[in-house]
Design brief:
2 helices; Ferric Hydroxamate Uptake Protein, Chain A, domain 1; elongated; single chain; 34% helix; alpha+beta; 3-stranded antiparallel sheet; 5-stranded mixed sheet; 8 strands
Length: 174
Amino acid sequence: MVAKSTFYGVSVLLVAMLVISSVVAIAYYNDYQRQLSVNDHQSTELQHFISRYGAVLQANILIDFGNGTRDWYNATEVQPGWNLYTLTLAVTNGNVNSTCCEFGSHLVTGIYGVQNQINQNKAWLVWTYNTTSSWQPAQEGADLINVYNDSVFAWTFCSYSPSTGNPECPIGTP
């Protein structure tokens, strides 16, 4: 009798383990199939983006030296995923002085040899442009500003309020 009950117990245990392992395998398979579907969807979206905009995007950037000299870099080719700091390095051929990353982004201290003059409250300030609100001082550092197709940005060397940090210079229209 002991042998019969032991055989029965082992059989029940093996069947239970078979059921449990089958359920786990089905769950993993379903997750795998779901992830394949997500990857296919993301790949399709990327292919749609590339076919619509091309692998290379275009952005516009103004560098205003505050003395009447203004350099526009229009239709500058950028790669998807670039940020404003990367774009600035590209248009200036790396002629940018900065410190990294105390506030989570590069602090630009000079462009083309024109350096911030903190004792005179003059510095390089970054602006963003959109058709709704025109020019706006950027609310975050250049590394944190993503570049999209037809983005418009400006760097201006101008005075700022020492108490508020707000720019005291106007920016022209693009």
